[in-house]
Amino acid sequence: MATAAHQTARTSAYDAHGGTPADAGDTAGYETAFDAAVAADERVEPRDWMPDAYRATLVRQIAQHAHSEIIGMQPEANWITRAPSLRRKAILMAKVQDEAGHGLYLYSAAETLGTGRDELLDKLHTGRQKYSSIFNYPTLTWADVGAIGWLVDGAAITNQVPLCRCSYGPYARAMVRICKEESFHQRQGYELLLALSRGTPEQHAMAQDAVDRWWWPSLMMFGPPDDESSHSAQSMAWKIKRHSNDELRQRFVDICVPQAESLGLTLPDPDLTWNEERGHHDFGPIDWTEFWDVLKGNGPCNEQRITQRRRAHEEGAWVREAAVAYADKHSAGRGVEQA
Amino acid sequence: MTNTDWPLWEVFVRSRRGLSHTHAGSLHAPDAELALRNARDLYTRRGEGVSIWVVPSSVITASSPDEKDPFFEPSADKPYRHPTFYEIPEGVKHL
Fold first, then answer.
1. Mind giving me the DSSP string for B28-55?
2. How far, in Å, CA of A171 to CA of A163, rounded?
3. N or C end of chain B: smaller count of CB under 10 Å?
4. Rounded CA gap, A117 and A24, in Å?
5. How near does any CA of chain A get to the CA of B86, in Å?
6. What is the dihedral of CA A233, A238, A239, A243, to 10 degrees?
7. Distance from CA of residue A28 to its chain's centroid?
8. How far apart are CA A196 and CA A189, in angstroms?
9. What is the pLDDT of residue A135?
10. End-to-end CA distance of chain A, in Å?
11. CATH code for the part of the protein at A34-332
12. CA-CA distances (angstroms) from residue A330 to A273, A322, A333, B34?
């Protein structure tokens, strides 16, 4: 196999074609066409001309999303060997495998924008790209697996459903696939919590404790309030994002309140009340100091998550090398120059 | 970083017999056999397919979005290729 095959794949299916207009006048023409396509709700595809900032924003967002999927495998995998039954163990393994799959769909989408997989992983490992802060909290008990499914995946779904209509085609298509699969994640978490809530007093207390710990970090998953969100306005104009952070957060709270009642569990917010006038639930203030602190790297598990991720990558290096050596040997043996 | 990035493959899945393969996405794999196995694990975890094709992404030749107007134009000015172009008297059946 030719060495070139091991480098970041070049394919005419993704290569930006109209990316270098001859002069400023041409750029203006391209930009007008791009704006018109976005305004008409058409999808932008990999080879289309797009503003550099649009491309950069997408790479940042899709990469962060992909990183979140694969880092998110860690807190849940923590409980696979200690799952209370074979049924729960099989479910949890399938869920963690799905998270790996979601990461791969998203890395592929990011690659259509001209950023290689190795570069993306390197940026994660060196802290130059982020992942969702929610995964910097520890999973202390088995009930946390349920709380993650119900609340964390629930918040993710609320965020992700509108992304299925994102203006960038490959990202939107990855989100459609992911959203179909997330529904099982949320339901298994809810069922797990329900079993605990209806179990012994100790099991019920464990479920309540998990919900108490995961509720506020889940609300933070929607990002800072609209007036402090640096990327929101531009992303909405580009139709990458369809609803504001606060709008999605409110939607999530309204969905969760009756679900918590059916679970027989409470949400840890004394200010949570139905506001007849607004037609929504009011809820208490979010501790954004905690959010920014965890984002900066001072959460309970930031260090552990990245160390584990790096170790997994480094310890897997020999497998990747062996697979390449095997492929090279066999293509040489057949005398076939493989793509 | 050692350069062991595996090549990119495009994956096409036939969802059931009687339908053609459609593009599902892409993945990295060191060779065709592992690309097939990875594609099975990645794109058919819930019975989404009965057959998979994998193609090295680098062998794809794509039309240019820049030239899409001139490239596809020849078909636009030939309305007589469509059945609705023709006027047939009322009452003529099976036509």
1. E-SSHHHHHHHHHHHH-TTS--SEEEEE
2. 8
3. C
4. 32
5. 32
6. 0
7. 34
8. 11
9. 96
10. 7
11. 1.20.1260.10
12. 66, 12, 5, 13
Instruction: Single out the residue of A61, A167, A145 nearest to residue A99, CA to CA.
Output: A145
- Is A156's pLDDT higher than 50? yes
Interface test with A, best of B5, B37, B45 (most A CBs within 10 A): B5
Q: Which chain B residue is nearest to residue A125, measuring alpha carbons? A: B1
Q: Is A152 a residue whose pLDDT tops 90?
A: yes
ipTM value: 0.87
Mean pLDDT of all residues in A247-266: 98
A266 and A207 in contact (C-beta within 8 Å)? Answer: no
Domains annotated for chain B, with CATH where assigned, are 8-65 (3.10.20.520)
The one-letter code for the residue type at B57 is: S
B7–A331 CB contact, under 8 Å: no
Sequence ranges of the domains in chain A? 34-332
> Do B42 and A104 make contact, defined as CB atoms within 8 angstroms?
yes
Provide the residue count of chain B.
95
Q: Answer whether residue A19 shows pLDDT above 50.
A: no
Quick one: chain A helix, strand, coil %, rounded to 5? 70, 0, 30
pTM over 0.95: no
